[in-house]
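Submission sheet (multi-component)
Chains listed below:
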Amino acid sequence: MTTADDGWGELAALYREHARPLVRLAVLLVDDVGIAEEIVQDAFVLVHRRMGRLDQVERPVAYLRTTVVNLSRSRLRRRLVALRHPGLVERASPPADERVGMSDDQRAVIAALQRLPRRQREVLVLRYWSELSEDEIAATLGISNGSVKTHAHRGMAALEQELGT
Amino acid sequence: MTVERRLRDAMQARVESVDAPAMAVRPERTRRVWPAVTAGFAIVLVVALVVALIARHEGSDSLRPASTPYPSRVVVVTYDGKLQVLDSRTGHVVRTLARDVEAQNGHAGVSVSPDGRRVYFTRTTDAQCDENLDGSMEPIDEIASVSIDGGRVRTEASNVRWPAVSPDGRYLAYSGIPNCSDAGQSIVLKALDPSLYDRRFDGVNIPSGTPGTVYGLAWASDSRHLLFHRDIGSTYPYVLDTATAKAVDDGQRVDIGDGSAVAGYLGDTGYLLGTSAQTSPSERGEVIAVDATSGARERTLFEYPGPWPGSDAASDGTGRNILVSGARLYRWSQGDARPTRIGSDVAAAAWVPTGRVRAVDAPSKIVAVTRDGRLIVASSRDGHMIRLLASDYGGNGFTVSPDGETVYYSRRSDRVCTNPVGDHSLDIVAVPTRGGEPTLIANDALDPQVSPDGRWLAYSGVPNCSLASSSIVLDDLQKPGAQLRVWSSVGGAASVVSPWSIRWRDDNRILFALADGPTRVLDIDQTVTLTDSPVLPVAEADSLCCRVGATGLMAGSRTLAGVTSVWTFDPSSGGPVARLTWPGQPLDADPTGAHLLVYFTDPTHPPVLSRNVVGSRRLVRISSQLYDARWLPGS
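Outcome: structure written.
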């Protein structure tokens, strides 16, 4: 028999183990640690609301990852709106101190990554950071395997063109 | 430093701004493994280069059978959005048909009409819709077509993707995208034949599940069954029966299960064409044949070097020629030791059908049995005797080695069995096809069959002339004297091996029949332990003969309404596939599978040994004086 407490224990365990890796994933998608933490928090809140269904989710970590990617996408869109309307509260760029430890080249790479179209950026981050397989990326983003290949190829080609080899 | 490495380093540095304790969660394997993988990849590249140079020096092309002519043209969609016709031998661009050809969400298929005249592809339009979850505006895709010779591009349908022209050229199938949504998509058949109506399949016709794109449409060779993918992220396809417009449900999906992906059908072979999961740049990709019913990996067709991201594959109508697209474009034909790289940065590729059957040369000689029981080498044109091999052939089966050097046959010995009839026992002997003295191979045996790889000789063991206790025996031809008795009975005393029934499948597995009860053909792998239970497909065949065509199918005979005809059978499922028109018995196929020997037994004519180019309806007479024959390979 499943109880509410069972669900909480499961969620807590999920949080302990996966919250920080998910924050890192979100950082690479939205380029802001604070927003990334909010996104992951929101993702777990969403999961909590659906606790009754969590046990029906075959791979809760994959479910969380997809939620984080979707929420990151929404936050980026809100950031675009904020850029167009400066009076809004949404922060339009990450704090400068977040990149203190990075070299100039690493900053350039991250900047180039952020300039990629969102699908390409998501595919590259999921592949080279999260190290997901092609199938897992397709499942996370809700696109076909062929699209994963295309976005990956285009993304790497764009980075090579911008950064040089 | 490569961009990939720089990207990894930068991402690692970027996330270090996330608090330190959590960093321990990050597995160390990336830092340790990837340099090793990169180094390994470099080594693989160097080795591959050296091997390729050596192969080129040795003239590896000479290994390619002359009988596998691949179509001369390929159509590709490049990653930078060009629709081009390439020379399939060299990869040179013959013609650019269109530019700015790409779908919004990556490539979405290219298809060529069966006459090779028109190319169908997906492209993005200027129109936009705002239905994405994040509210962003995305262009609408459409399917367009253009003549293979170039010219005006014609829009076929809007808000659709994944064109697939049926092999009979009557329908253009594609996935419909209602209101730009990734959910609730349908499959549409647009009639290319003006006498037909358009058809649409959705709702009950397409299995329910996670909403997602309908993509990767591919027709079966029967122009009736249509393979497609659904449930984004999964690797299994579904099959839609367009004739009944129903019976497509979760139970019919083909579940591969090992991360491999299905790219379509392997021509008309009855198998699916798949690519294996490729998880790292150093891993070699595999193109595989997949059982269409079980989803089991049937065999690896060939491997190709990376890099990630992996690739899609496309077969021509025969299943004999395959393209692999992706960061590199490869061409491979049956018989090739390895694929040939002919291009790069190709999102989708398709062979351009030639629209005609290409003739290939049959072997010029056969080994045949005359009506008075002599074993001879004869002309495959008119049956004229070239050489006498043996006068003591007992009519109990013979076989020719794949290199064409040796004939194995059974003959009557001087030993008399103790059975009531007092038969003479049978021996198997080998004789060179160039002539010479026979060499004894085995006593108390009949119906020898050499394996396709030439290593094994299988035959029926019949001690003391007792057909009721027939067994399957394997001799290792590379280790004379090494004998492995494989099977003596199946399912108890009531089921024994039928003599004269042993045949080899193309993958070196053995098929054989039971001597009693309903005709059932069994399948056994000579490398498994002797007690393993064999698979039990019901072949519905009176007898099986040989692999036919490039299909992986086997020719056999089947009797319906009192008439025995030549059929093709699926050697995995055992099911009949098609009737090949003529009454009679199939005897042998040449090593390429392109030519069949048939003993024609139409009731209105005297029986006659004939030959057939697989794929054509015509039987060509060889001789009425010969009643059994095998091709002589290499002649």
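Remark: Helices of chain B lie at 3-15, 29-57.
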